[in-house]
Design brief:
The protein is an alpha/beta fold. The protein has helices spanning about 20, 40-50, 170-175, 185-190, 315-330, 350-355, 360-365, 395-405, 415-425, 460-465; strands spanning about 15, 55, 60, 70-75, 80-85, 95, 105-110, 115-125, 130, 145-150, 160, 165, 195, 200, 205-210, 215-225, 225-240, 240-245, 255-260, 270, 280-285, 290-295, 305, 310, 385, 390-395, 430-435, 440-445, 455. Strand 27 (about 430-435) and strand 28 (about 440-445) form a beta hairpin. It is globular and about 80 Å long.
């Protein structure tokens, strides 16, 4: 049947509908291979990787939310990704516990919010960034606990403020009858208002950005509740290194001891794995769930002691695995991540393109795959042409209803360009040395020294708030 998929029709992979992929209608062990000690490991693994069918989308316990991916517990959502526990949300990425929101990125526990990035526990907020506990706020940045504020930066527990100036309720309500952002005034406010060098809260011995409730984490970004980590992005894990988008929680099983892995959930001791969940003691595995003690496997569920998807006894596995590791040490493959051309998608279709954009020529020169697939043009007379990339996109009825209800203009950019624009609001995931613009202390920051904003160390920043 016709299905939705993250893989284009030109993909070399066999793709199964997610209901079939999780069912007993097929068995990934039918593609099992013998390990050949006369060959390097990666070419053998690549054969298995291309033979085992891949899942079209990853959605769990969703209702009326077919056009989503990497999501769970959604209801009436559309084009939401890496999102959970949401209802009536459109075009949201990395969001959770939210209702009636649209075009949000990395926002949690929000309701009736639009074009918000890094915003949590807020209600009826529009175009806000890096803020929490807001209500009825517009164009606010780095604000906490504020209500009825417009174009403000760095405020705490304020109400009826316009560009950081206190108004009476009557004055603010008069302005709200015909609100319009003065971009020049707002940008001037952003430049003269001090900004904290790094977003690190309730953490000890940490270096990175957007870190909360962590201890001893170095060069990490967007992590929470983690300890003893290095070079980890978008995660909640302990004692892990070189990982992206991994995690779990205390109630369902935390993630521990992950190395050089992507998207590992509720797992322990994963090495060089991708998309493995509820598993332990896996190395070089891809899309394996509820597995233990497996090596070089793809698409397995509830299996133990497998190598290249072939079943072994515990004794056979323990005898063969050290030989394979020794062989890989000899070939220089052990502890190295999968080669770049193993990626199941093109570089331009991956998250890497957001963080480290490359042209086709640059990507191919570095050994990455590239997708030339073009989606068929919309055959819809009501379609809108994106002002940035020229793609045609449509406004769905629920989206139009949201715009009309809140008096918002129709978008001129397609959903992809709007998403990319939101992501650009956060600083690059890089750390540089600079001096505090208040006391001159040497500090680390994600803002380069040539940036015009005032960047303060934590001590000076807290003083500026008092």
């Amino acid at each position: 049947k016709e299905i939705l998929s993250i893989y284009p029709p030109t993909s070399p992979y066999k793709v199964y509908d997610q209901k079939v992929w999780w069912s007993d209608q097929w068995d990934a062990q039918d593609y099992a291979q013998e390990f050949d000690f006369s060959k390097p490991f990666f070419p053998q693994y690549q054969t298995l990787h291309k033979n085992v069918p891949r899942i079209n989308l990853e959605n769990r316990k969703n209702e009326n939310s077919e056009y989503c991916n990497d999501s769970n517990d959604l209801k009436n959502c559309y084009l939401c990704f890496n999102t959970a526990e949401c209802e009536d949300c459109l075009y949201c990425t990395t969001c959770a516990y939210s209702r009636d929101c649209m075009d949000n990125f990395w926002s949690m526990a929000c309701e009736l919010c639009y074009e918000c990035t890094k915003v949590t526990e807020s209600y009826h907020c529009f175009w806000c960034f890096n803020s929490s506990n807001l209500s009825d706020c517009y164009y606010c940045e780095e604000c906490k606990g504020c209500r009825n504020c417009f174009g403000c930066v760095g405020l705490r527990q304020k109400e009826y403020c316009l560009y950081n100036e206190q108004l009476t309720r009557e004055q603010y309500e008069e302005f709200s009858k015909n609100p319009k952002l003065d971009e020049e005034k707002f940008n001037e406010l952003r430049l003269k208002t001090p900004h904290k060098n790094l977003e690190i809260t309730q953490s000890e011995d940490c270096l990175g950005d957007y870190i909360s409730n962590c201890k001893n984490c170095y060069w990490c970004f967007d992590i929470m509740g983690s300890e003893d980590c290095r070079y980890v992005w978008d995660a909640m894990t302990n004692t892990s290194y070189d990982c992206f988008n991994c995690g779990g929680d205390e109630g369902q099983g935390f993630c521990n001891y992950l190395y050089n892995s992507l998207a590992g959930y509720y797992s322990t001791n994963l090495k060089c794995c991708n998309k493995c969940a509820k598993s332990s003691d896996l190395s070089y595995c891809d899309y394996c769930t509820s597995c233990d003690s497996c090596f070089g496997c793809v698409g397995l569920h509830h299996k133990n002691y497998c190598i290249l998807n072939k079943q072994y006894t515990k004794e056979q596995y323990q005898e063969l695995l050290p030989r394979i590791i020794e062989h890989m040490e000899h070939t220089g493959e052990w502890c190295e991540f999968f080669p770049r051309d193993f990626s199941a998608c093109g570089y331009n279709d991956s998250m890497a393109q957001y963080y480290f954009p490359l042209t086709k020529e640059q990507a191919l020169a570095k050994g990455f795959n590239w997708s030339d697939y073009q989606k068929p043009a919309l055959d819809d007379p009501s379609a809108i042409k994106c002002q940035k990339d020229g793609k045609l996109f449509r406004i769905i009825p629920k989206e139009k209803e949201f715009y009309e209800k809140h008096g918002l203009p129709m978008p001129t950019l397609c959903p992809d360009c709007r998403n990319h624009q939101r992501r650009q609001k956060q600083n690059p995931r890089q750390i540089c040395s600079r001096k505090c613009d208040s006391c001159g202390l040497s500090i680390f920051s994600t803002c380069k020294p040539n940036r015009p904003e005032k960047i303060y160390c934590e001590t000076c920043y807290l003083k500026s708030l008092s």
